């Protein structure tokens, strides 16, 4: 299956073993599935590391025909409830969604919550890329992503945060823009600090600077959504 998959994401499951989410073709070639591969553990090594004798693959979510070709990254994490949580972009349907697995292997029907609906019209095209999942100390997951808007006059991008209101993400808060006015930002990296603040780092092509965002309120929901700082990104010289 690995040679036919796209947009893979790796996480550590509740047993401490690797788990993989990816888009793969349906057996009848009528579309694609968001699939989850779970380690078949054969015990632990002398160093206490999980050892896998193979992987069990589950079909978690059926996608539309060719959706895999236009969908953004899939992100996988294990929630505090020990169940997998997936975020994925369906560019054909124009949604960023969160999928909550019914069991640790994602073999049952997943419950889906739409976190964002975006436009895919001819005159206004929006794309969502690079979703990043993190979980705060209050056990509520957050997804950080890039929303790019293209019109006849050009394109601009925003860094957006959507936070779950309950631990299983059955309901989510409104999208919060924490940075805007960029051209082509890089994929963001995000994490919650021990202090509870959400830190986000990305590279802004327009200013040619690295950007560091720090939200002092959970979910970046305060009046001042994020404090922002920049830093230089220096490339090392290429050896001759």
Shape: globular
> Using DSSP, what is the number of strands?
16
* Separation of the first and last Cα atoms: 40 Å
| Computed CA radius of gyration, to the nearest angstrom | 19 Å
Give helix % range.
under 10%
The string of secondary-structure elements, in order, is EEEEHEEEEEEEEEEEE
What's the arrangement of strands in the largest beta sheet? 1-2-3-4
Low-confidence parts:
66-72, 233-240
Largest beta-sheet details:
4 strands, antiparallel
Query: Structural class from helices and strands?
Result: mainly beta
The average pLDDT value, as a whole number, equals 77
Strand residue percentage: over 45%
Instruction: Count helical runs.
Output: 1
Oligomeric state of this protein: single chain
């Amino acid at each position: 299956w690995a040679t036919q998959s796209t947009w893979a994401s790796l996480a550590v499951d509740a047993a401490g073993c690797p788990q993989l989410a990816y888009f793969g073709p349906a057996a009848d070639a009528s579309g694609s599935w968001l699939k989850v591969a779970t380690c078949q553990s054969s015990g632990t090594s002398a160093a206490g590391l999980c050892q896998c004798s193979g992987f069990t693959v589950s079909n978690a979510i059926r996608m539309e025909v060719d959706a895999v070709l236009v969908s953004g990254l899939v992100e996988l994490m294990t929630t505090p409830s020990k169940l997998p949580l997936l975020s994925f972009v369906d560019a054909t349907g124009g949604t960023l969604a969160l999928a909550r697995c019914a069991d640790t292997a994602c073999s049952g029907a997943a419950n889906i919550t739409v976190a964002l609906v975006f436009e895919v019209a001819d005159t206004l095209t929006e794309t969502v890329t690079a979703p990043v999942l993190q979980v705060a100390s209050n056990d509520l997951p957050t997804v950080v992503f890039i929303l790019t808007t293209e019109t006849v006059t050009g394109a601009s991008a925003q860094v957006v945060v959507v936070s779950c209101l309950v631990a299983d993400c059955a309901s989510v808060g409104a999208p919060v823009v924490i940075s805007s006015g960029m051209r082509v930002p890089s994929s963001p990296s995000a994490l919650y600090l021990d202090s509870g603040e959400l830190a986000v780092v990305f590279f802004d092509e327009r200013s040619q600077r690295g950007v560091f965002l720090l939200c002092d309120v959970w979910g970046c929901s305060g009046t001042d959504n994020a404090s922002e700082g920049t830093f230089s990104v220096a490339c090392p010289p290429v050896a001759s």
